[in-house]
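User: Thanks for the earlier help. One more: Probable alcohol dehydrogenase AdhA. Can you show the sequence and predicted structure together?

Assistant: Of course, both are below.
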Amino acid sequence: MYGWQVSDPGPDVRRAMTRVAMRVPRLAAGELLVAVDACGVCRTDLHVVCGDLPVHRPSVVPGHEIVGHVLELGDGVSGFRPGDRVGVAWLRRTDGTCRYCARGAENLCPGSQYTGWDADGGYADCVTVPADFAYTLPHGYSDVELAPLLCAGIIGFRALRRAELPEHGTLGIYGFGASAHLTAQVAIARGARVHVLTRSPRAQKLALELGAASAAGAFDEPPEALDSAVLFAPAGDLVPVALRALDRGGTLAIAGIHLSEIPSLDYDRELFQERTVRSVTANTRRDGRDLLAFAQEHRLRVEVTPYPMARAADALADLAGDAVTGAAVLVP
């Protein structure tokens, strides 16, 4: 089989990655061997390739928004059959025994491992996944539509929970890429008024098409005070901007795994009146199941730009250059 390895992490993604012939991964007990039918291109992949995140596995194959079909079952696996369509997401494994796992916060498990960072991911023909971390997928979506749900969708869903958006409240979304365009639809379906703040005119247009109440520049002031906000853009200088837009008691959730430096905050203007800043760390399997159940009940519009798997480096370069509207998806 063939796969893309991060051979030399750095800012030039085309130099950082190499497409190589690889052996089909060996199947361990409790795992599924999955043929990759589509793999979303996530900004976290970009952080892995560019070296923003420390190397966990040298020459790792990135990719963690994987839709595929089961080829083989490892010893002890039940509940799946060869040919089943399954999803493989970012969270690959937890220890299941620590105090975080015991209280339902497995996303904080110190022993957690991640697809496309600790183990080879979906920029390849095949991938393995522990069966307990594979997802059953909703019907009515194509493979390329489902792929972005497996990280962009799940992380946005968790970020919305962390933002504690009140019923029929006002939500600000900063940045409007793969995750944000799905999160906006979830919030709107639940009765929220959504204001999108992003520098991309194409993304602003998409936001309005999806039902946003307004769309403006990233540093603009929304037309009304926000009950909650989610920051998807990895830009720390937007943190004080979003905080100033919050109403009293409002919450800002920061959804990225990596963020540029946050400027000094003005306590009186940006934090006082019980405004809250919260980070988002990975996800739990419950988040994933709940998002996919929501997608089964509410037909989400998933904006995708397909790329052949052989052009994975081009897809990442386009993502880095903000040249992708919605989500890029690799198709073998």
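User: Great, one quick takeaway?

Assistant: The longest strand covers residues 31-41.
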